[in-house]
Design brief:
mainly alpha; 0% strand; globular
Length: 504
């Protein structure tokens, strides 16, 4: 998203057509020097997890309804687990009438005790806390968010940021998981999250950074040692890593701005890292002053995201991301702790509607050349995303499996959650690869001459078709890194089908 006095952040001119490979002319509204930049692609380092806060690494989600503690502070919740029905005591032996002179049969010495022991065992098993399963509703939200990101970065439709604010949703889900994990010691939780987050990014950097240097990228002499320190952000993304504004040559296989587009998704990794490091303190503040803590990032956005106060450089970029999506992250705390269940639904929904209405009102007076692209309007993004996510979580059902017709999408939802980091990191590069493949259709004898007009008219649609098998190849090639990072057995295609077959 674009912020005052800062380079573009996430997405591009919605009205521009997809650029051809090989350094096409700049789209309307783009800066000179960004020729050929695809609509919706990040203009700088920004634009999914189970245990990691990213989609794809957790053991489930709570649906607790815990009451806040007294004294104005919000108590750390306990996690209620369901219990089954208790086993019934075996019916005692009945009294029999024995004929005179007959000997009554003695009951087997172990019969009644064995039955009672068996009943006791059943009772203990039924009363044992059930291990919480994955909440498939939240998994579905994460999968939809990822698909929406791909849609937007391809087609650049500004209204998609209003229809479904993907980044706010992903941060809210990650915040809920983080709050749940912090029932363990904070140091171990942070180490676990970093261990799961960084290796997939390192695999990505191991491909992209050498490509930049191979295409004549050189250190910036004026920055001296600082340039090399920034290069370290490819290893530990505390700030925005450097990249060449233009790389390659005009007419080559890669368009000049490919590095800008490829590195774009790393903004999310940086923002997520900041939230992880800050979460122990944020959670303590939230449980003491929940509503003040939740709304504080919105107030910060109103100061630094509107130009009232400008924080320059890499710190300013990181602070704005932290402020814009901080309320969504803390809203995840509220969902985990059951605070949203304590608020009457009509009050929660009406309050969310007011916040969302303010976001649209603010956006209407601060539209950019990209129209209703909320990624370009920080305060509108913060408030709309907060209200939208609040409604999603207030009405959140607790699904242990996808219901009805949604069950047919179960394997794809599972795959998207298990490989969310891989999908998010690689989708921009693969969109460019898809464009390159479609461009080659014009070079196919007879096909280009006969169907050239149709190829031109359906250009983005053809890329949309190509992106999915390309993402499949990326999952097969790099997705296993997520398993290794989580200390799991590497899997090539973790869509859950094997578990369902074994269950049957």
């Amino acid at each position: 998203m674009t912020h005052p006095n800062q380079p573009r952040r996430d997405d591009h001119d919605a009205s521009a057509a997809w650029p051809r490979t090989g350094g096409a002319a700049a789209h309307p509204g783009q800066d000179p020097g960004h020729a050929g930049h695809a609509p919706g692609f990040p203009r700088q380092n920004r634009s999914p997890e189970y245990e990691n806060g990213f989609p794809g690494h957790g053991n489930g989600y709570p649906g607790q309804n815990n009451s806040p503690g007294g004294g104005g502070s919000y108590a750390s919740p306990g996690y209620a687990t369901g219990t089954g029905t208790t086993g019934t005591e075996p019916f005692p032996g009945q009294v029999r009438t024995v004929a005179p002179g007959a000997t009554a049969p003695l009951p087997a010495a172990s019969a009644v005790p064995a039955e009672r022991a068996e009943g006791t065992e059943r009772t203990e098993q039924a009363e044992a806390p059930a291990r919480p399963g994955r909440d498939r509703y939240l998994d579905l939200l994460r999968a939809v968010a990822l698909v929406r990101v791909v849609f937007f970065h391809l087609f650049g439709w500004a209204w998609l940021t209003v229809l479904f604010p993907s980044m706010g949703v992903m941060f809210a889900l990650a915040g809920s998981l983080m709050a749940r994990s912090l029932s363990r010691p904070a140091g171990s939780v942070i180490r676990s999250r970093l261990r799961r987050l960084l290796p997939p990014m390192w695999a990505f950097s191991l491909v992209v950074v050498p490509m930049m240097f191979a295409l004549s990228w050189k250190p910036v002499r004026d920055e001296g040692l600082w340039w090399f320190l920034k290069l370290g952000c490819y290893l530990f993304p505390i700030g925005s890593p450097p990249y060449p504004e233009e790389s390659g040559s005009t007419g080559g296989w890669l368009e000049l701005t490919w590095a800008d587009q490829a590195v774009g998704p790393l903004w999310y990794i940086r923002a997520y890292l900041w939230f992880v490091l800050a979460s122990p303190l944020l959670l303590k503040a939230f449980r003491r002053l929940p509503w003040v803590t939740m709304l504080a990032p919105v107030a910060l956005t109103a100061v630094i995201g509107t130009g009232l106060v400008t924080v320059p450089g890499m710190l300013g970029e990181s602070l704005i991301d932290f402020a814009v999506f901080g309320a969504c992250w803390i809203l995840g705390f509220a969902h985990n702790d059951g605070l949203l269940k304590e608020v009457p639904r009509y009050l929660a929904v009406s309050s969310a509607a007011i916040v969302m209405g303010f976001g649209l009102w603010w956006a209407s007076g601060h539209l950019t050349e990209e129209g209703w692209n909320l990624d370009e309007i920080p305060l509108a993004q913060a408030t709309w995303s907060l209200g939208f996510c609040a409604v999603l979580l207030v009405y959140a059902p607790s699904w242990r499996k996808l219901p009805g017709k949604l069950a047919g999408w179960d394997t794809l939802v599972t795959l998207a959650n298990n490989r969310a980091v891989t999908i998010y990191l690689w989708h921009n590069i693969l969109l460019m690869a898809g464009a390159l493949i479609v461009d080659q259709l014009w070079n196919v004898p007879w096909l280009g001459d006969t169907f050239g007009t149709y190829i031109e008219q359906s250009y983005n649609g053809l890329i949309f078709i190509a992106i999915w098998p390309l993402l499949g190849l990326a999952i097969l090639s790099f997705g296993w890194v997520e398993d290794v990072a989580a200390k799991r057995r590497p899997r090539l295609w973790p869509n859950g089908a094997d578990k369902r077959r074994s269950a049957v």
